[in-house]
Amino acid sequence: MPTRRPALVAATAALLLAACGAPAPTHRGEVQGEGASVQEWGQSDMNRVATVAMRENLLALHRLADKLYRRNPAEWRRGGAASREQAVAQLRAATLQRSGWPALGPRRDIDALALALSPGYEGDRVAGFLYAVADMLITAHGGKTEFYLLDGQDAQHLYNAARNLEAAVWMLAQRRGAGGTPLLLADEINGAERNLSYEREFGKIIARVDLLAQVTTEKYRRAVIGYAQGLAGGTFLQFLPVR
After folding, report:
1. Mean pLDDT across the chain, nearest whole number?
2. 3-class secondary structure, 194
3. Per-residue pLDDT tens for 160-213?
4. Hey, how many other C-beta atoms are within 10 angstroms of the C-beta on 159?
5. Domain total for the chain?
6. Where is the signal peptide (predicted)?
7. Using CA atoms, how far apart are residues 219 and 223, in angstroms rounded to an integer?
8. Burial environment of residue 8 by CB neighbours within 10 A (0 to 12, 13 to 18, 19 or more)
């Protein structure tokens, strides 16, 4: 037994040194939720899921606006903004108010999206494209960004919106303007760089809309099942008196 002690001490020391040399875990933030509000009393679980998903999708579009303006600074200048930050703020306000976008004229929804992705579009293409995407998504959600007990979504409309966005992202990557240049510089893969952050952000939006469409198709079936479960629980899952 004594002959094993040096080996055991050496092994323990090696493990301690390895643990000390291991890199510390990287902190990548924490999930953030909103505080309770009076409005939530008028929302079902489904309403709340739809509201949070819409909020996250609009925030994602605003992040994409900032990223696209960084790679395409001529666009915010073409729109008349004094800075990239001002251009993003103007787009955010117009999106939330659904006040329209001047360069798109009266077009809304998929008509606006088709114009913003046409090679001949002469306005700020970043703003036109993302405003049209936001308008299309809000239209698919019944024209609302917050949802309460009397509100509901059409699963097929949500599904169609997700497919529209897939098509729009593909068109953005494939279509060319004058001189064969891309409509907007976005994702890039070359020998020195691999940047797919735009595609990932769009992919998150599509995934959220698709999930909401799937859950919406189950809403009424789950309501019936929940009601039946409540009846069963009330009848069979009660404690019985023992005295």
Report:
1. 82
2. strand
3. 999 999 999 999 888 887 778 888 887 665 555 555 678 889 999 999 999 999
4. 18
5. 1
6. 1-24
7. 6
8. exposed
Distance between CA atoms of residues 134 and 58, nearest Å: 7
Query: Of 71, 85, 81, whose CA–CA distance to 103 is shortest?
Result: 81
Residue 87, domain extent: 41-217
Euclidean distance between CA atoms 23 and 107, whole angstroms: 54
Residue 180, number of CB atoms within 10 A of its CB? 6
Residue 101 lies in a domain: yes
- Take residue 190 and report the two structure tokens written for it: 């070359």
- Please give the DSSP secondary-structure letter assigned to residue 141: T
Q: Which residues contact 108 (CB under 8 A, 6 or more apart)?
A: 100, 132, 135, 139
- Coil vs helix vs strand at 59: helix
Closest CA to 134 of 176, 173, 155, 104: 104
The answer to whether the CB of 48 falls within 8 A of the CB of 154 is no
- The residue count for the chain: 243
Residue 197 belongs to a domain: yes
Residue 167 lies inside a defined structural domain of this protein? yes
Tokens for 83, please give them.
């800075």
Alpha-carbon distance of 138 to 144, in angstroms, equals: 6
77: helix, strand or coil: helix
Give whole-number Cα distances, 178 to 95, 103, 158, 171, 175, in Å: 29, 19, 34, 15, 10
Nearest one of 103, 57, 96, 65 to 83, comparing CA atoms = 65
pLDDT confidence band for 150 (50 / 70 / 90): confident
Q: Is residue 3 part of a domain?
A: no
Portion of the chain with pLDDT greater than 90, in percent: 52
